[in-house]
Amino acid sequence: MNWKQLLSAKRWGYEYRDVHDHLDARSEFQRDYDRLIFSSPFRRLQNKTQVFPLPGAVFVHNRLTHSLEVASVGRSLGRLFYNLMKKDNPNIDLEYPFLQEVGNIISAACLSHDLGNPAFGHSGEAAISSYFTEGAGRKYQEHVSPKEWADLTHFEGNANALRILTHPFNGKDKKGYALTYASLASIVKYPCAAIDGHIKGNHHRKKYGFFECEADAFKQIAAELGLEKDPTNPNGYLRHPLVYLVEAADDICYNIIDLEDAHHLKILSYQEVEELLLPLCGTEDLRTRLDGLKDTGSKVELLRAKAINTLIHGCAAVFAAHQEQFLNGTFKSALMDALDEPIVAQMKKISKISVARIYNAPTVVQIEIAGYKVMNALLEEFVPAYLKTNKTMFDKKLVAMIPEQFHTDQTDTYTKIRAVLDFVSGMTDVYAVDLYRKIKGISIPSLD
């Protein structure tokens, strides 16, 4: 793989257009970022859970604020990588004109990396999958292909993001969001189909990156960018190298910022957070600065900023130093796992504490259980109603609640199920709970 082809500014749905046809205040990749910022799926992230329940008296991160922060970190990673490359080769812009845009490409990909996540985070994903593996959805297995069944039984937010960005939804623009090929490829962490994913020890196939219905779309993206086939999977591909930087930006943010939220919610004390973050803050002696701050929240913010700075510089340096391995697909781990051993050890310590104290905190577990039940119940109502040939009056009323954009004229079972999943997975936490209460008769809409 080579940077010249990998950084294509060709736009999905506008392949015929010369990207140099017009003058603009923004580059093609900055336009990607702006299209996402103004999009409805992105705005809906403000009401989707990141880790903790949506805010009451104390504000914590949601999917939208998380995505914005990941995009900021991703932009820095890309810019640092470019600066390191230019330092070694001052004429690199002549060889690779778009290399200076990697920060913009990565920030756009980071902005969209969680677009496909359903309400209630990973609990929502699990609820959708279990509906088909353990619930009433099991009966549909005989009506779909093995590849399609693998999609349904392993719902994947990453694959759903690619679908949201490229699928011609009913009544919407047939070109989707018309992002550049480089930005689209940079969000696909596991470039294979569901039936070929979930392979332990294979970083390209840890999960999967596109639904069966988007297989041809990703094949088109891969051909344009020159993505190489995965030697362990003839139907899959090696990652676009920038995926590693998008992944690193996400890893940096959630590992560090979840600690900040946990401190705000009094799950972790300031002393506990300091002990976890201070070893990541580089060589600068922060003790005087920390002691000069009276507000513990401000102290955590300083530690968070310094820790993120250390991780950004470390990841960018590894990416630049080993770029040939990233280009030929032989780099076998996440960037964060390739940092200096003391940093990796400290991040493992943070992960262990996070699992024990944060991700299993009572409020987190409660929202996961509630979300699981809500999402499962919605599928139990909408999937059979949409698939039935002879619908009851109640079925017709349920189907009428599905917005027109999610309906399909196709009659096969998989496409119709996917239409319902598009509807349910796009819901915010608040909307999903409200709809659940209404269709279950728990709350009655006002007649005023």
From TrEMBL:
Where does the source fall among the domains of life? Bacteria
Keyword annotations for this protein, in alphabetical order, are: Hydrolase
Note the InterPro entries from the entry: dGTP_triP_hydro_central_sf (IPR023293), dGTP_triphosphohydrolase_C (IPR027432), dGTPase (IPR006261), dGTPase-like (IPR050135), HD/PDEase_dom (IPR003607), HD_domain (IPR006674), PHydrolase_assoc_dom (IPR026875)
Q: Which SMART domains would you find in this protein's record?
A: HDc
Residue stretches making up the HD/PDEase domain? 59-264
Protein name as it appears in the record: Deoxyguanosinetriphosphate triphosphohydrolase
Which taxonomic lineage does the organism of this UniProt entry have? Answer: Bacteria, Pseudomonadati, Bacteroidota, Sphingobacteriia, Sphingobacteriales
